[in-house]
User: What shape does this take?
Amino acid sequence: MPTIVSLFREIRDPRDINARHDLAELVFLALAATLCGAKSCVDIAEFVEGREEELKEIVTLKRGCPSHDTFSRIFRLIDPEELAQAFSAFLCAVRCELGLPSRPRGVVAVDGKALRRGYEKGAFFMPPVMVSVWDAETRLSIAARRASGSDEVSTTLDLLKSLDLKGCMVTADALHCRPDTAKALIGRQAHYALGLKANRRKLYGCAEKSFAAAGTLAFYETRESRHGRAEVRRASLLPLKALEDHLLFMRRAKAAMAARKCAGRASCRSRRSRTAFPGLKAIGRIEATRTKPDGTTSIAIRYVALSKVLAPKRLAETVRAHWTIENQLHWSLDVVFHEDDARTRKDNAPQNLALIRRLARDILAAHPLDKPIASKMRRANWNRDFFHELFTHMR
Assistant: This one.
């Protein structure tokens, strides 16, 4: 625990010299309260008041218990970038203590999540958005940052450029299937698997026609039955060479009635423009057939732009690994930490408290007890020894 408090001391105190409470202690108390189920600054203040004697064994609380206004004000004022740096430093320390590599090596998922009730007054249609970078192998966060002006793409680019992702397979949804994102990942010596939809009209149309013309391809199939429904997924892949050959054939057939010289130029232009995506090596396809309890069946087909040719099985595993950011991180933040119900809105408070929640979630997830995060949170609130163990087991 002293290590965590020392990391928080790196955050610059934005208050005047007459501040009554130590900044690092306030941030630690907020983290401790969140670990035990606190959802707001009022909850944090009540937690500190209720466990004052126990907390004095960790921090000094020289001026007594801070009020909820003190917590609210400090989180409005703290620079989110400095808190994010402390967040990253702590996560590095966690990985080190758990014997994990200092940087991720497998699938890294990127996704944004809206803080649905954290909007400014009168701007309910524009809630703040937090972009998270997630290590799908260890199920731990890597970084998180608020999207300025809800511009998730630019924020993601800034985050990716600040991380060491060498050799990782970075996954993201179709919003990030852009040449600048692909170029940034290649520049970081990482691979990408980006969802491909109609927002990349030419490439998407090329993928549809190429897979239709390719006929039967090698595939990897998985079957799953849950919640009364059965789902069969088939993953297949088409290398870039096959896409280009199909495009060239289509263009030549269409240009056969034109003059030879013009047809040749049009073919070259089409080949360059319709496959010009940095680092693209293949397109993957996931075909999911879902059968509901009433017997009705639906088919969904998704395409993935890849910078590396993968085996169908590896493609299926990579796409499924991406969804852990939804199932393990975002779901937990909403259901366990009630992030969507958080009413904090002013200044820097929404993103600062969002970082505290992510830090608490990672601490709870890193504990070896084979229980859900919600169960560990209740134990931390009820059991003093378990509360201390959340920190000491990592040393």
